[in-house]
Amino acid sequence: MQTSPSGAPSEERLEHKENLNVLTSTQAIIREALEKLGYSEAMYELFKEPLRMITVRIPVRMDDGSVRVFTGYRAQHNDAVGPTKGGIRFHPDVTEDEVKALSIWMSLKAGIVDLPYGGAKGGIVVNPAELSFRELERLSRGYVRAISQIVGPNKDIPAPDVATNSQIMAWMLDEYSRIREHDSPGFITGKPLVLGGSQVRETATARGVTIVLREAARKVGIPVEGARVVIQGFGNAGSYLAKFMHDAGAKVIGISDVYGGLYDENGLDIDSLLEKRDSFGMVTRLFKNTITNQELLELDTDILIPAAVENQITAHNAPNIKAKILVEAANGPTTWEATQILTERGVLIVPDVLASAGGVTVSYFEWVQNNQGYYWTEEEVMQKLEQTLVKAFHNVVRMAETRGVNMRLAAYMVGVRKMAEAVRYRGWV
Ligand code: NAD
Asked: Which of 300, 423, 327 is nearest to 39 (CA)?
């Protein structure tokens, strides 16, 4: 770091140092959103951290007889609107701050799509690829035993996130039902259909991104059919998105995974890539002519969809982004500074808390179906998802236009408003 003669970091350098901490950068936008809506400092103090954050140690008997102890977290951001809701992530880089930020984003998503929930998130520090199937089962069950006192169908409802799936949800449901000694399908969402899962849940995030992307494209005047699309990440979200974009007649010219990207200006053969991809979303290692993820993000394209990890578009590369629409399927892919640079350059940003809200929306539909014991068809779920997301997209656009703010701040303002009202009515602040 450049220092001043006194040895302290120079102000000029500090001014240009970007905040890449997802928690503190989220807090700064929440503060601005609340200020713009006229709420007090006390409301910010309440929202800047989760109401509850629990850290658990989970002992797991490994296949070789040894015991490994894993660290897990569950953050419940705010339950003024209703029970909290949010996924569980299995990843070696999970941190307390990340889980807290993700729980805040879930509150915002619930507010944006108008669900009767607050946000939550869970995570376990683990590389699931290193565990056997049975070790993964024991870890999943151990996590539920560790957090069972603070979760439940009317308290806090988990779901899948990065590297967790319907099988893991099934083990977690089974463990919870054993502890409570009754069947409770509404405890968790993202379950297999036979255990009370919902139609469309598996593809819900990508479906949701596709719906808001279509609305954004209409607004900018770019027909999806024939549009050039670049997608970073080829996992659950990215691969389904590539398929839906391809099926909608768009030309997917670039995709990537953690090892690099593939590019073809005439459009990639998505069906063949989907066949070749492994269950962790890896495919590019099978090819020789790859590009880097940075090159991929800067490709000449109409639509760019980050669907991988955080902090991919920063002040450093934002000036080189050529897309006209940026739709964030991933959580936190673009920094606040990059948001401002892109907005000034006229790029329409559909922020993460809006674009990736399809998953929690269909999770809500799953929970409603569990509560009523009556299940909807795929068409019914799709129709409800469509209605919910189209309305949410236009609410955020309206907020951005009437208040003269960028799309991310507008989404935060829409997202935080219902929760703040609920807090006020309850008399907490
Ligand atoms: P995943 O683990 O299935 O896939 C991740 C993909 O990103 C893989 O192709 C991986 O190779 C790639 N990747 C990982 N690190 C990378 C890096 N540094 N650079 C480039 N590529 C990298 O995960 P997913 O479920 O598809 O989630 C992706 C993003 O979407 C995450 O931010 C997640 O929070 C968000 N999201 C997912 C869902 C969902 O339902 N799956 C819902 C909401 C938001």
From this structure: 423
